[in-house]
């Protein structure tokens, strides 16, 4: 519990900082991108130079992406848009969406979805949280494996539980400890923002995110969401 509190406080501070800096960074970045693109399009530069410009433009877009993620979490409460969400459908959609990528990476992607009640929540944010976890699972299985998403209702405690389990590299004690800390990443090209955003979203929804992981064996994340039922009568 204390751990959770510290994490929430940290996220709040990062959110406020993000709100303050993001716009300030984005404006000059937009100017730089504009001029880079102008030079990129000019006839005078060689094919080889153009490649360098491609890289610069891509890197600027990456920075922009990071800023968007930071802005997203800067004022999340206000941004929550609740409506009727079909969690079962949302998860089955993911299986379709990632079939190609899974196949290309020798990953078996399975979903086990029991009949679920409709809930009142922010579908887009929940989607983002789940996608962040799916992406991490994919990245944890560079040599293939199995990704299983299972969703169930626990009527007695009025919650829905979504397990996202992979047979990937697993996490060390240190990684588990630092999970959700802004910019913490073990990947060469990682941003270290995915888990922070995911923790944040689930917390906003009044839910919780727990994790079990074993090095070399795999990782299971469990999202527990309170059941804000939709009256369909
Ligand atoms: P990023 O993916 O950009 O590194 P994240 O915040 O999404 O940032 O994840 C932070 C770190 O947590 C990752 O770099 C990785 O070390 C670890 N991690 C997250 N999910 C998994 C997973 N399913 N299996 C193994 N490690 C994971
Ligand atoms: Mg990630």
From TrEMBL:
Where in this chain does the record put each Histidine kinase domain?
Answer: 20-229
Query: Where does this one sit in the cell?
Result: Cell membrane
Query: What protein name does the entry list?
Result: histidine kinase
* UniProt organism field: Halalkalibacter nanhaiisediminis
Tell me the classification of the organism that encodes this protein: Bacteria, Bacillati, Bacillota, Bacilli, Bacillales
Query: Which span of the entire protein is present here?
Result: 488 to 720 of 720
